[in-house]
Amino acid sequence: MSELGRTAFRDRFMSAGPILNVMNKISIGPRPYMAAMPTVLVGATVGGEPNFMTASWAGVACMEPPMVSVAINKARHTEKGIAENKVFSLNIPAARNAVESDFCGIVSGKNEDKASNFEVFYGKLASAPMIETFPVNIECELYHTADLGSHNLHIGKVVDVHADESCLTNGAPDTMKVDPIVYSNKNYYRVGETLGKAYSIGKGMRRL
Ligand SMILES: Cc1cc2nc3c(=O)[nH]c(=O)nc-3n(C[C@H](O)[C@H](O)[C@H](O)COP(=O)(O)O)c2cc1C
Question: What is the pTM of this model?
C-alpha cells in the first residue's frame, strides 16, 4: 500500500487519538464473548436419522492435520449423535439459506424431523449427513471432546470438504461467492466491505 493509501486507511478506519485508554473501560464481567462468529449447521446421525443444528461457536482448530471445532450444549439432540457415531459435519450456509439455518437453531430434532427440509447427501463418512444446497460442507471424524461444563467442545479431523463449483476461484472457496452468514449480537449479517489485505497492510508499521 502506498503512503497515500496508508494515510487514507488510517483516516477512515482508525481513531486519531491514543489507542489505549484503560480508564474508559467498563468491566462487563466474564462471558464467552466474541464480536463476530460464523453460522454453521452441525450434521449428525441420531438414532439412525440425520439431524442438523445451528451453531455459531465453531472455528478452525488446526492446520496440519486440518481440524475444526464446535461447542455444543450437552442437552442438544445432536450431542447424542456425535457420541453414538464419532463423526459430524459442518455445513456452511449462504445468506440465501438464512431462514432454514435459523429454524434449525430454534427447533430440536427431538421434536421435529429438521433434515426433511434439506436434500441430504453423504461423502466418505456414512454417518455424517450434509446439506446439498449449502455451498460448502465439511466432513469430520471426531478427534477429541473436551467436557468444559455446559458445553462439550468437539474437535473434528477434516476428512473432506465439498464445495459448489460456483463458489470456487482458482480451486479454493471464494468468500464473496460463498456469501456466508455472520452471527453477532443475536443478528445475522453478510460479510461487509474489504478493509485491506491480511498479512500485508500492517507491514508499513515495521521498524526494521
Ligand atoms: C444463531 C444460532 C447459533 C447457535 N449456536 C449454538 C452453538 O454454538 N452451540 C449450541 O449448543 N447451540 C447453539 N444454538 C442452539 C441450537 O442450535 C438449538 O438449541 C437447536 O435447537 C439444537 O438442535 P438439536 O436439539 O436438534 O441438536 C444456536 C442457535 C442459533 C439460532
Answer: 0.92
